[in-house]
Design brief:
It is a single chain. By secondary structure, this protein is mainly β. It folds into 2 domains: 1-107, no CATH class; 116-230, no CATH class. Helices cover 4% and strands 30% of the residues. It has 1 helix and 18 strands. The protein has one helix at residues 202-210; strands at 5-7, 13-16, 25-28, 38-42, 51-55, 61-65, 74-77, 87-90, 93-97, 103-105, 113-115, 124-127, 130-133, 140-144, 148-149, 160-162, 171-176, 182-185. The strands form 5 sheets. The chain has a 4-stranded antiparallel beta sheet with strand order 3-4-5-6, with no helix packed on it. A 4-stranded antiparallel beta sheet has the order 7-8-9-10, with no helix packed on it. A 4-stranded antiparallel beta sheet has the order 11-12-13-14, with no helix packed on it. A hairpin with a 5-residue loop joins strand 1 and strand 2. The structure holds calcium ion (CA) (4 copies). One calcium ion is lined by residues 163, 165-167, 169-171.
């Protein structure tokens, strides 16, 4: 999946929404109440919707927001248990959209990366060198990295984020401000959720690699992790 286009496993075009390049793309089971995966993307052309939410297999657009020019940032993830499934938000659109595109609340203060950090399966916000938990009245700071720096100018991305150690929650790697070392931050918060580590999921594994290709984006697994989640399918991995 590359911007508006999705390539089939035979190398041919599966579909294109025709909406061109955008600065952010998120693919996962964003709406667990609907079969299959969904995709959320922002657009940067004044002739295109500023954002859209589509069936990831067919490209059928389920909802979109009016054109606004260059919509520079956008995110979709379950960051709030008050609405089922993922919430979607972006720079050029007011409010927080539910899985049907309806405004259900306050937009988070950042639109950048994500991390599963505290004990619940709802995802936290990762921006610059901080991790925050979304709330309707404001965010709660869970981590403020000391003497570390983010990358890529105003995009403020980590060196890498992903589940690379320990349980399924995500670690974050930042460089020290003097660029002489990398630091790996891991959550100290216990969780009662017991699922396989995320690198067992093929989509998530590819997603960790895609962070360092083209525009850096946070990884998503090929199944839903969030409030009210069902037990994910056991990973189909064989070790020799
Ligand atoms: Ca779905
Ligand atoms: Ca939600
Ligand atoms: Ca959480
Ligand atoms: Ca982990």
């Amino acid at each position: 999946m590359y911007g508006a286009a999705t390539i089939d496993d035979n190398g041919r075009l599966l579909y294109s929404t025709g909406n061109g390049h955008g600065d952010a793309l998120h693919v996962s089971d964003l709406d667990p109440g609907r079969a299959g995966l969904e995709v959320f993307k922002v657009d940067e052309d004044a002739s295109k919707p500023s954002s859209w939410f589509a069936d990831a297999r067919t490209g059928q657009i389920l909802w979109s927001t009016p054109a606004s020019g260059d919509n520079g940032r956008g995110v979709s993830a379950d960051i709030w248990a008050g609405s089922p499934g993922a919430e979607s938000w972006s720079s050029a659109v007011a409010g927080l959209a539910n899985t049907r595109g309806q405004n259900v609340g306050r937009k988070p203060s950042s639109a950048n990366f994500l991390a599963w950090w505290d004990g619940d399966p709802v995802r936290e916000l990762l921006d610059a060198t901080r991790i925050d938990k979304y709330g309707t009245g404001g965010e709660t700071r869970l981590l403020d990295g000391s003497q570390v720096a983010s990358n890529n100018g105003t995009k403020s991305t980590p060196a890498l984020s992903g589940d690379i150690l320990g349980d399924w929650r995500e670690e974050v790697i930042w460089r020290t401000t003097d660029s002489r070392a990398l630091r790996i931050y891991s959550t100290p918060i216990p969780t009662s959720t017991r699922i396989h580590t995320l690198m067992h999921d093929p989509q998530y594994r590819v997603a960790v690699a895609w962070q360092n290709t083209a525009y850096n984006q946070p990884p998503h697994p090929g199944f839903f992790i969030g409030d009210g989640m069902t037990v994910p399918p056991p990973p189909n991995i064989y070790l020799r």
